[in-house]
Amino acid sequence: MTADTGRAPYAKDPSGSGSGHHEDDSSLTELGYRPELKRTLGNFHTFAAGISYISILTGTFQLFYFGVAFGGPAYWWSWPMVFVGQLMVALCFCELAARYPVAGSVYNWAKKMGGPHVGWLGGWMMMTATMVTLAAVALAYQITLPRIDPWFQFVGDGTGSSAAANAVLLGTVLIVFSTLVNAFGVQLMARINSAGVFIELIAAVALIIFLAVHITRGPSTVLTETYGLGKDHPWGYFGAFLTASLASAYVMYGFDTASSLGEESHAPRRNCPRAILRALVASFLIGGLILLFALMAVPDLFAKQLSTEGLQYVVLVTLGPTIGEVFLWCVVVAITVCVLAVHAAGIRLMFAMARDNNLPAGSRLARVSPRFQTPVVPAVVIGLVGVVILVININQPQIFSVITSIAIIMIYIAYLLVTTPMLIQRLRGEWKPAEGGFSLGRFGLPVNILAVLWGAAMSLNLAWPRAEVYNATGPQHWYLRWGAFLFIGVVALGGFAYYWFVQRHRTGVLAEHASESAPTGGPATAP
């Protein structure tokens, strides 16, 4: 850190040409920011950030039971369905990542595509959802660690409220760890995250092989078995399938994290789009094979434990306790790096919004630590909020599950706040991809249309007032059934009202973060 300017020193240009940083930072200058965060991340680091946020082992082990319970083994078809829809979104994001590889990617993209008000709303929705997601992922420790060894059940016997209390304890420890790692700088986070992703990928491939060796039935049986679900649904099995598809929709998102670390990456215009696509495609292939082979290998396809204990049961009963526990430890690693990635993405998003003075105490939130060269205050704030959200789970687990589901809907809506104004720009002929960078060319318009239609349809499917999702344990309450619409309405309208009447009058790039040629202070203007 230089004493006279407060700028973080540039990392060495890996090309040796001396021109790399000028090209890397051009998008920052275009947005009115000066470079502050240290560029240290390479290709694998950005890929690891995206794939660890998606976190195949975490998502599949956490939600397999849900899919089977509501759709039977045939719910597997929702995996490729969700992938195709999210691929349309990811392709749009790749164009944006090549054009604007900056911190708080979704926020800045929404701002550039739709103007400052749309950008603020997209960032607000994404930031709120990220903090809830952080707590939700941390709770996954409870699903796995006590299955490995009862010693990890520190509170009670693991039933009733004791399970929730123990989940909060384990989750709090994990969030504290994540806060410390992220506060100490992106290099430490990236090293731990990359090592964890490497272990996760090796374990996932090994799990596929082990399950393949134990296959007892063909895929035709698995992919057509519905358990007779949907008979009482007015839409038949299709209605049951839509509910079960949430198990896949809850997993395949967060690939934009690769671009959110763009200000700390080498050659982000080239590497970030690649990382987004690689993370999503790798997650689809590996996760799809794990789910398929698990259903083909489990000794009893009709075992009740499939819809209650999920993949943990399949691994232990199919591979035996010793090998099974090894894989469960790998799931613990996956959960850990997933929390690190979610936390890191939230920090960059909060930093990006605060840098535009779009949050209270923006100057403090956007301050980059001279020692660690990372925004430390957002790391602590997000960690504290995550722990507070966890505490809700102790006495109100049903409400927590509702909020968790809603957080994922908010992420899909935040994505829509990027793809929809991007589509409008395309229709007006105003969208221009990065020169020489990733471009969809003539396929841009149809892909963008599909991305918007997919995002709207899945958001509606996720928010649909199903009792089995939003009021599963009873007693029935209308405000839980309609929790998605109520909660999102309160967060969106309440947050935007605060922005409109208070914060927008202060919006503008803070002087200490502005490039020398950029105007500072005052209301931000639409691009």
UniProtKB/TrEMBL annotation:
- Please list every transmembrane segment annotated in the UniProt record, as residue ranges: 44-65, 77-98, 118-143, 163-185, 197-215, 235-255, 276-298, 326-351, 372-394, 400-424, 445-464, 479-501
Supply one GO molecular-function term: transmembrane transporter activity
> What InterPro entries does UniProt report for this protein, alphabetically?
AA/rel_permease1
Q: Which domain of life is it from?
A: Bacteria
What are the UniProt keywords, alphabetically? Membrane, Transmembrane, Transmembrane helix, Transport
Q: Where in the cell is it found?
A: Membrane
Q: Does the keyword Transport apply?
A: yes
Query: What is a single cellular component term in the Gene Ontology annotation?
Result: membrane
Topological relation to the membrane, as annotated: Multi-pass membrane protein
Q: Where is this region: Disordered?
A: 1-28
Query: Do you know which PANTHER family this protein is assigned to?
Result: AMINO-ACID PERMEASE BAT1 (PTHR45649), OS04G0435100 PROTEIN (PTHR45649:SF26)
Q: What is this protein called in UniProt?
A: Permease, urea carboxylase system
